[in-house]
Amino acid sequence: MIINLCILLTLSIKNGDTGKRPTESEAEMIVMMLPSDANPKGNVFGGVILKHVDLIAGLVAKRHSGRANVVTASIDRMVFLKPVFIGNALIISARITYVRRSSMEIEVNVEAEDLDDNSTVHAATAFVTMVALDKYGKPTKIPHLIMDNDNDKKKYSEGELRMNSRLKDAGKV
Q1: How does pLDDT run across 111-126, given as a tens digit for each residue?
Q2: Among the CATH numbers 3.40.50.2300, 3.10.129.10, 3.55.10.10, 1.10.760.10, which is that of 17-169?
Q3: pLDDT tens digits along 161-171
């Protein structure tokens, strides 16, 4: 596998394709949840959280792909593990885990911080597939992913499995 990766990197460099590390495009945002973000009982709407998940995934994808326009292709199994309430700080971090020719998987983790007692809970995780498009709206090639450590390699392998499963479910494989 290491030999194949070295061959891939060598071929990419010869073709002028430069890669990027996951750390070059990762992002974090913190947003205070307000009454307009929640129902009358104070629970933040799932759609508000999804909006922020989509926004940060788009930011990571744009950082990775450069000039390309990026669009959301899918969001995998968004499971809300813990509630988020009015007054919580929503802490959202995102990092690219897998890249194909024009598509990329972004892992997004959502935490809710109770600012009154300084406690934080893991509220949700999602895997967002973004696609890079050229000026004509067609999928365009993006930089490959450079993995420097075992964790990056593990996330890449897991992302490849998820991407293949998505493609199979969509009838594209």
Answers
A1: 999 999 999 999 999 9
A2: 3.10.129.10
A3: 999 998 888 88
